[in-house]
């Protein structure tokens, strides 16, 4: 199951790449403009940090299918490594996904709010769909149920499309998406870090250390130094 960073912030990506078992980075136009940098060098910098193997997801901004296709070709030409082009599930977007599939350009269908959008995108040839869990919940829908239904439809109809859960407001939603059978999740750096923010762990580790030092003395800062 993939763990993907939903951010274009260089410092946060560097940190998470060093400490967490990260599989890739997703971006969207809003995420990119937050960094206030020229977008192509920014994306190439992210690529340099994560390496060529990990997937880098870049979204189109055009409204018409032909524009999206040209943008997808441009992104693939300008950036090195494993690129997935994010295409919104508008009617034009679905047409673009079909055309890009014929050209062998890999896509993720984004802004997915319903199982039927996911179904159409999968049939059109999207490699991934990204249901927007928290945005669905904020519309008083049920983001987790949408994810479960997509998983069921893909399984029952043997659609090879993968589900990358997106748009999260808390770790509980992420856990529910993992349990529902998603192939991956993409989350903001703060939420990825929050997966390990458990005060009891720090308290336990401190207790283990205190117990050790109580017998072996203050010099025993690690196993090698313990006499
Ligand atoms: C990722 O692909 C999406 O663009 C992103 O998860 C949206 O998240 P948000 O609802 O927190 O903006």
Descriptive labels:
binds erythose-4-phosphate; globular; 11 helices; eight-stranded parallel beta barrel; alpha/beta
What does this structure look like?
Helices cover 51% and strands 16% of the residues. It is an alpha/beta fold. Strands 1-2-3-4-5-6-7-8 form an 8-stranded parallel beta barrel, surrounded by 6 helices. Strand 5 (107-112), helix 6 and strand 6 form a beta-alpha-beta unit. The longest helix is centred in the last third of the chain and has 18 residues, at 199-216. The radius of gyration is 21 Å and the shape is globular. The mean pLDDT is 97.
Give a topology summary.
Elements: E1 2-6, H1 10-19, E2 24-26, H2 29-33, H3 39-50, E3 55-59, H4 65-78, E4 83-88, H5 91-102, E5 107-112, H6 115-124, E6 128-131, H7 133-138, H8 143-156, E7 162-165, H9 171-179, E8 184-187, H10 189-194, H11 199-216
The protein binds erythose-4-phosphate.
Provide a brief overview of the structure.
The protein has 227 residues and is an alpha/beta fold.
Radius of gyration: 21 Å
Number of DSSP helical runs:
11
> Looking at the chains present, what oligomeric state does this protein adopt?
single chain
Binned, the helix content reads 40-55%
Strand order of the largest sheet: 1-2-3-4-5-6-7-8
Measured distance between first and last alpha carbons: 43 Å
Largest sheet: 8 strands, parallel, barrel
Strand content: 15-25%
SS content category: alpha/beta
Enumerate the distinct ligands.
Answer: erythose-4-phosphate
The count of β-strands is: 8
Overall, the morphology is globular
Helix-strand topology string: EHEHHEHEHEHEHHEHEHH
Low-confidence segments, ≥5 residues, pLDDT <50? none
Report the mean per-residue pLDDT as an integer: 97
């Amino acid at each position: 199951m993939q763990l993907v960073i939903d951010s274009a912030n260089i410092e946060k990506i560097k940190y998470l790449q060093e400490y967490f078992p990260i599989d890739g980075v997703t971006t969207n136009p809003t995420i990119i403009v937050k960094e206030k940098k020229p977008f192509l060098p920014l994306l190439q910098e992210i690529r340099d940090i994560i390496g060529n193997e990990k997937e880098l997801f870049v979204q189109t901004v055009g409204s018409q299918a032909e524009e999206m296709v040209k943008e997808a070709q441009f992104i693939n030409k300008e950036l090195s490594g494993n690129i997935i082009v994010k295409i919104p599930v508008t009617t034009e977007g679905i047409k673009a996904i079909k055309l890009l599939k014929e050209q062998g350009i890999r896509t993720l269908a984004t802004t997915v709010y319903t199982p039927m959008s996911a179904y159409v995108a999968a049939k059109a040839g999207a490699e991934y769909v990204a249901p927007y869990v928290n945005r669905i919940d904020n519309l008083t829908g049920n983001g987790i149920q949408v994810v479960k239904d997509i998983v069921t439809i893909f399984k029952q109809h043997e659609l090879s499309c993968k589900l990358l859960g997106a748009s999260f407001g808390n770790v509980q939603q992420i856990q529910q998406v993992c349990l529902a059978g998603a192939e991956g999740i993409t989350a903001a750096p703060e939420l990825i870090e929050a997966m390990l923010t458990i005060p009891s762990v720090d308290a336990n580790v401190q207790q283990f250390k205190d117990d050790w030092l109580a017998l072996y003395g203050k010099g025993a800062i690690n196993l090698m130094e313990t006499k």
